[in-house]
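Dear Dr. H.,

I hope your travels went smoothly. While you were away I took the liberty of generating a structure for the chain from your last submission, since the lab meeting agenda had it listed for discussion. I wanted you to have the full record in hand beforehand rather than looking at slides cold. The sequence, exactly as received, is reproduced here:
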Amino acid sequence: MIDTGDTAFILAAAGLVLLMTPGLALFYGGMVRSKNVLGTILQSFILISVICLEWVYLGYSMSFGPDVGGLVGDLSWFALKGVTSVPSNDYATTIPQTVFMIYQCMFAIITPALITGAFAERMRFGPFLIFSVLWAVLVYNPVCHWIWGVGGWLGNKGVLDFAGGLVVHLTSGAAALAAAIILGPRKGYGKESLMPHNLPMTLLGTGLLWFGWFGFNGGSALAANGIAATAFVSTHLGGMAGMAMWTLVEWLHRGKPTTLGAASGAIAGLATITPAAGFVGPNAAVIIGFLAGAGCYFGVTLKGRLGYDDSLDVVGIHGLGGIIGTICLGIFASKLINPGGADGLLAGNPGFLGTQIFGVVVVGIYAFALSWVLLKIVDVTLGLRLTTDSEVSGLDLSEHSETAYS
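The corresponding predicted structure, in token form, is as follows:
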């Protein structure tokens, strides 16, 4: 039967998750140079339309439809055929299936939007759209089914991911690494200033993302219950601990704390707590946030040594954060917190830690390899990168014939 309280809660959570995409657009937009701000914002914003269309006609059925060999859902729910206001027998049984569908749609939208930070300031708009749709169909939908779909093979092996450490953050982080390598560095990278043009915009985006994350993680309980409350509290504690630790480490390492560092630390903590939010207690959430702040800070510093230009640190924050959080779930998970979860290493179950590491390896390799192939195909056929002249003039003028500031 439909529970009106659960339904209202998930509808509100879906709205919060949608808000994260404009929040991400502002977060990324403030970090690029002024000549690229509109193009960068649009890369996130347009996916609200593009990926929603893909989700209605293909994505929802591939991700959550009747299982085919543990790999993907069939297309029996194409164009939402049979998806009604009656609850599903398999997913979120106290809310209309249409509500579950639209809630999951918001996750599908923001995941490819996260990737855009890696190739900011240098990818053409048309090829970007084609890559994003192909990536959603061939990377996001299958991985979503593997872990969250009934019959998915990683879920059947016991891999847990409360709200997207693997499905969202590791897949996007792996794709971001492939994109940064294939496109190469921005013109002038390492030789001239590529400083953010509007950090207040980035901080506003951070605040919107943090606010939306309560729907992202809290709503993943799929009911207004104690697990949602656990996830809500863990989300906030992970985010605040990540911000505190990144700021401290940066202060000690570089001599001064920065607003960009505080924003980055908050997002790192929020991303890292995501897979564990509904499975761990508050003290574990603080520890995970601290690990995220320190680990992702040093992960970001490595990109210069490794020689790839991940413009807005998607790999070091979302990719590495997803890995750290998924492994920490294998350590800190407790059935005392969530009886539907698992006991981790500290609760006497080292096997679950191994299962989580297995999930990281499988998803990371698959997402990186398929993203690499898709990027190469689009590059060979259409050309991914702006011309040198277009890159000098900026995305806003060269791709959209407009400017943010006159």
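Two observations you may find useful: The chain has 15 helices and two strands. The chain has one domain: 4-400.

With kind regards,
E. W.
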